[in-house]
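I have been asked to look over a protein record a colleague put together. Thanks in advance; the entry in question is below.
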Amino acid sequence: ALEVIAAVRSQLGPGNPGTTSDLIDTYEMWMREAKQNRPASVNTTTMRLRRFFGPALLKRDPRALSAAACQGRYDDLCRELAVDSHRNCLGQAKTFWRWARRKRHVVRDVFADVEPIGRKKRGKAQLRVDEARAFAERALAEADAGNDAGLAVLCALVLGMRASEVVQRLAEDVDDGGRLLWIPHAKTEAGRRTMVVPVLLRDRLARLAASRPRGGYLFRSQDRAWIRDWTRRICVLADVREVTAHGLRGTHATLALEAGSSTADVAASLGHAGTGIVMGVYAQPGAGAGAATDRMLRVLDGGKTGNGTGNGSEKSKSQTIVASGSSGVVTDGESACE
């Protein structure tokens, strides 16, 4: 279908973009072939674009779209969607229109005066310590009962992985008897990393990988909605507050900082180059303060006391799970250290 679209586009030329829907198809092809974006990213972008323009504007010639029509459509979305959703749709529409103007498909900037409304939320709801323990134990029970979704959500919690990173893992990404988990492809250099898997998950991941054909995916679904759904299900089964899979990444960051991990280590575990996004988006306010106080008290009294939040305190099995996810990230060219 994309080849047919390309042939028609070449015949029509840049002066005849067809409908707005046709132009989005051309943009999709450009993202896949020229820009080489990840398929999941391309799908999300095109979904947001079609949501923004809606059935009526998708059928129209983009050269005939007016600033008033685009503003009116955004106003409708503001009434229909949450702030994060309608702002994301508008952002993608603006980027798409800049590309269309650069490629000379359209001339007018119909989005120049369309301003985003509302403030985006910073971070997602997270599990507290006792909730994280209950969640981890329930997820382990699911995994031991043969449900690979239990392991999938634990990868998000324990290793701080994105939902897309979890579902895209191949069986061969589990390496060295389950001790290492490779993420060789990502949007950024920091996202391409090799993670040291905590002991409790190693055998489980290794057995799951061994049960898959070589070259096959590690988990049974490659849809991010699958891990999101199971995150909510396990929250219900564990009788804890409902969080998202992205919220598990935030829980990972907060608990790792409280366990004494540095912001740089947590950023590396999450696949970010800088530490700003860790403290600004993922970690709860004050995360790491308990560990800092614990270290200060140990210096003052020669290590005799502490507040029990740092690495020196004893941990239950499930506490170790949620506090040790940032224990090791092996970047390209480095050796793996426990």
Remarks:
- Residues 39-58 form the longest helix (20 residues).
- The first strand starts at residue 174 and ends at 175.
- DSSP finds 15 helices and four strands in the chain.
